[in-house]
């Protein structure tokens, strides 16, 4: 298991990079409901 530390760190880093790319791309503004739907919870 000690030799797989780099794989764990690389995997977590890849997931975070993927999430950042999706967040800043045009898919970051994608609505998951209909255009006239109101959110269930407001922040």
From TrEMBL:
InterPro entries: BCCT_transptr. It is found in: Cell membrane. It is a multi-pass membrane protein. GO terms for molecular function: transmembrane transporter activity. The chain crosses the membrane at residues 6-24. Keywords: Cell membrane, Membrane, Transmembrane, Transmembrane helix, Transport. It holds the Pfam family BCCT. GO terms for cellular component: plasma membrane. It comes from the Bacteria. This is BCCT family transporter. It comes from Corynebacterium glaucum.
């Amino acid at each position: 298991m000690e030799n797989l530390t780099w794989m764990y760190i690389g995997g977590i880093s890849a997931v975070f990079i993927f999430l950042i790319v999706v967040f800043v791309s045009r898919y970051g503004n994608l609505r998951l409901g209909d255009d006239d739907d109101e959110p269930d919870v407001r922040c």
